[in-house]
Amino acid sequence: AQKVTQAQTEISVVEKEDVTLDCVYETRDTTYYLFWYKQPPSGELVFLIRRNSFDEQNEISGRYSWNFQKSTSSFNFTITASQVVDSAVYFCALSEAQGNDYKLSFGAGTTVTVRA
Amino acid sequence: GAVVSQHPSWVICKSGTSVKIECRSLDFQATTMFWYRQFPKQSLMLMATSNEGSKATYEQGVEKDKFLINHASLTLSTLTVTSAHPEDSSFYICSARGPGVRQPQHFGDGTRLSIL
B91–A33: do the CB atoms touch at under 8 Å? Predict the structure, then answer.
């Protein structure tokens, strides 16, 4: 069963528009971590944010913000005032205890294209 | 921040040859390393988890005799694709985690492998 679902395959916006990426996860663990990563065309994985399951406080970091809702098992991510350099594939990921390995399960990714 | 170096960045070789990819943690002791594979326009799929000094644990469907993983030191893990064939062409990414299962994974920049 898919543990992390990113329903949006592709999103295309014009520069300065806001972009919200959806992520829904599934786990039976009470302790887990949620992540957002960015993968630009060059391929490297860029860490953006990590939240643990006990911290539902939503924050803003520069142009990034996230909305963690345990009640709906969602961990959405928003880029405010998007820029062309934000064009990339964005992955949501879940890390569970699973025998103390805390492996990462990635969603399918959402390709964001920001047009000038 | 923690740095993980992956080498080579890309490799092209003939079918039937073996290819070794190195993953090094430069400024921390990586007790656990992970190897992922990513096909074009797809997500990252975990291949195996290796703990220093132990045999790697492979995910279901990953051939351990095909993908040899060695994690002999706290700073180096290697993935050897034996007798590579065109279907093994992919983007391989390693990650490393320090002591403590709740430490975050730090990713290398990936290796693009093309088998002709």
Answer: no
Burial B49-71 (b: 16+ CB within 10 A, else e): bbbbeeebebeeebeeeebbbeb
DSSP of A85-96:
GG-EEEEEEEEE
Which residues are A19's β-sheet partners? Answer: A79
Task: Provide, as residue numbers in chain A, all residues whose Cβ is less than 8 Å from the Cβ of B32.
Answer: 101
**Total beta-carbon pairs less than 8 A apart between chain A and chain B:** 44
Per-residue pLDDT tens digits for A20-65? 999 999 999 888 999 999 999 999 999 998 888 888 777 778 899 9
Residue A103 to residue B101, Cβ atoms within 8 A = no
Q: What is the DSSP string of A5-16?
A: E----EEEEETT
CA-nearest of B82, B68, B78 to B16 is B82
Q: Under an 8 A CB cutoff, do A104 and B91 touch?
A: no
Confidence of residue B1 (pLDDT cuts 50, 70, 90): low
What does the pLDDT look like over B14-29, one tens digit per residue?
999 999 999 999 988 9
Q: Which residue has the higher pLDDT, B53 or A57?
A: B53
Q: Quick check: A4 and A107 in contact, CB under 8 A?
A: yes
Cross-strand pairs, A15: none
- CA–CA gap between residue A70 and residue A19 (Å, rounded): 21
